Structures are given as C-alpha cells and as structure tokens.
Amino acid sequence: MVQPAWQDPVLLAPETAPVPEYGSGSLADLLPTLVAGQGVPGFDAVIPELTPADRNCVFLIDGLGWEQIRAHPDEAPFLYSLLPTSRGGTGRPITSGFPATTATSLASVGTGLPPGEHGLPGYTVRNPGTGALMNQLRWKPWTDLKAWQPYPTVFQLADAAGVRTAQVSAPGFEQTPLTKVALSGGSFLGRLTGEERMDLAAERLAAGDRSLVYTYYSEVDGQGHRFGVGSDAWRGQLMYVDGLARRLAEQLPPRTALYITADHGMIDIPFDEHSRIDFDEDWELGAGVALLGGEGRARHVYAVPGAEADVLTVWREVLGEQFWVASRDEAVAAGWFGPRIDERVYGRIGDVVAAAHDDVVITASAKEPHESAMVGMHGSLTPLEQLVPLLEVRS
Description:
Layout: H1 30-37, E1 55-61, H2 66-70, H3 77-81, H4 86-89, E2 94-95, H5 102-111, H6 115-118, E3 124-126, E4 133-135, H7 145-148, H8 154-160, E5 164-169, H9 177-182, E6 187-190, H10 194-206, E7 211-217, H11 219-227, H12 232-249, E8 256-261, E9 267-268, E10 276-278, H13 283-286, E11 289-295, E12 298-303, H14 308-319, E13 323-327, H15 328-334, H16 343-346, E14 352-356, E15 361-363, H17 369-372, E16 376-377, H18 383-386, E17 387-388, E18 391-394
Parallel strand pairs: 1-7, 1-8, 5-6, 5-7, 10-15
Antiparallel strand pairs: 2-17, 3-4, 8-18, 9-16, 11-12, 12-14, 13-14
Helix pairs in contact: 10-12, 11-12
C-alpha cells in the first residue's frame, strides 16, 4: 500500500511473520512421528493427528505446495481428492520450515530436526570457519559432512532398530553429500523413471513387517523454476506426478500408510523492476555487505565487521514494507529457524535475514545469473511457500 508522503512507511516487524509449526506440524516432525509409531526408541509422536502404521511410505514431490494442489484440481484429480485426508484427516497442511527451500527441507525431513539444529539454514550460507559462502544443495565448496551435519538421520536410527528402511530415488542422488547428511540409512535404490520408483517403493514396503520407505520426484519443481507455476510444462509435470501417486497408492501392501508431501511451495515473480530488486545494481543495499547468501525470497546478508547495525537499518528502510527484515538475533528469537539454535549453526545465519512478504525477490544478476532468471521462486514464510500437503492413503 502506498503511504501518503507525510506518513512514515509501515514496516513489517519480524515477530509478525508466521512461524513454521516446529514441534507439532512441520516437515521435521514427520519421520519422528512415524517411527515412534513403529516402536523405534527415542522418538515421540509429535504430529498428534497421525495414527501409527507398521509400514510407512513418504512420497516427497519437490515444489508441490498445498496451495498449488488446491488451485489445480483438473490436472491433479487424485491428489486433489486426497486433500481432506491431509494431516490425519483434518484436511489441514503442515509447514516446511524456514527457509522453504530444498536443502533445508530435505535435511529437516531426514534428520527430524529443525534448521537451527541440523544446520542447513538456507540455499547458500556463510561457513564461519572459512568466511566463504557454502551452497548446501550442491555442496560447494566441499565441506566435511560430519562437521557440517553431525546428527544421525531418522532412517539410520530406524534401520538400527530393525525397521526395513529404504530410499528410492534417481540414481544420481545416491552419492550426493546432501543425501549422505540428510537421507542416508538402510538401502538406497536408484531407478530412472518415476514408474519404476513407485513400483519398487511398493515392493520395499512389503519386504518387512515394519518398513519405512522414502521416494522422491523433482521435476515439478524444475519446471516451475524454468517456466512458472501454471505453465503448460508445469501442468504437464503435475498431471504426470498425479498418476505416479495413484500408481503407488494402488500397490500398497497391507498395514501401510502412504504420506504424500512436499519440501516447499512456489510463487511466480514478474520480470519487472518493482518485483525483482537487483542487489548487484543497488549501491544502497550493497553498502557494508560482505556476502549475499540465501536466495531471492529468503536472503542471508553478511555484513562487513562493524557494519551490522548500519546494514540492518538500510535494509529495513529500503525493503521493510515488502520483506520481514530481521537481525540474526531477532530471527532466532522469533523462532524462524526453530526453537533452538546449535552453537555451530548460529554464525551460518545472516547478520540480517530478509524474508519476502510481497510478490518480490532480491536477485543478483551478476553473481547468480541462473537463479536470477527463474520464473518460479520459493524460500519465504508466506502460505504459498510454507504450506505443504500431508496427504494420506492407508491399506
């Protein structure tokens, strides 16, 4: 809203941002709840709406948020029909966690911990040990896995407790660092096509009296980034993955609960100067900034030593009507990254954290040309990005 010239702008206070439902209804709570119901020691059923099952399957569709399913009943008739089953039949979504991005969300799923504990709090974050930006999706530059994420995964602990555990995904993901720190444990089974993955996931579920199987599909997110949510390419992928979900649901062995979820939603951002603020061309936003991390809708800003307060002031004055702009301590206190922050993680969070409220992004055309050219974006705390399904099918 445009303010009259004689009035001060209304800035978004960090504490007004909607905080993910850590501890009762976030992605980090899903696997702990499932394995608690399978008798794995050390876990509690923290999503109270879910009923235990001997065999559990999680099908994670990258980029397919709650609002995207609700908006496309014709392209996703099966998934749409399952909306009333979400979150134990309450018909409600869960939240991804902040930021709503793949590396962070997959780590939350696999470790059962929020970002402030597992330590992957963004797409790119500063490594306090080196002072350089670390891309946590591509794991560049290389960083020691155990030092970066020291906790065991839920899959590892379930496997050790006798639950037959498997991940069924694209073969290329088997040796990636993100898989190793977030999703390892039990057997990794690589299959190229979605149909092969669904069929094998059903087989692996039947292989144990207690089983936990995770399977994944990425291209809904890929087409959304390239062409936008609602594009022909994106809708084609949605129709395809709707068929995959139905295929898996029809093959479930007895005593199985299938949960269909996502790592984040997505929003299309127009290509105009009001919607895309180019950090590389904005001297005011760049003043005192040593490193720009995160991604367009969830930025970690690392200040030159001594300039932290000035950077926060400028970013809040320039962007505070469109972004929730917080200092590191304000974001931590507001619970954006979870109820607890491990000491090793604290310095990875930006001196300033900016989360988009409006349909706007902070691009970096020179430093991030690929990311800056994307149509569909995600990362922030808005419902389009945060809300993800927890659709359920039981046999």
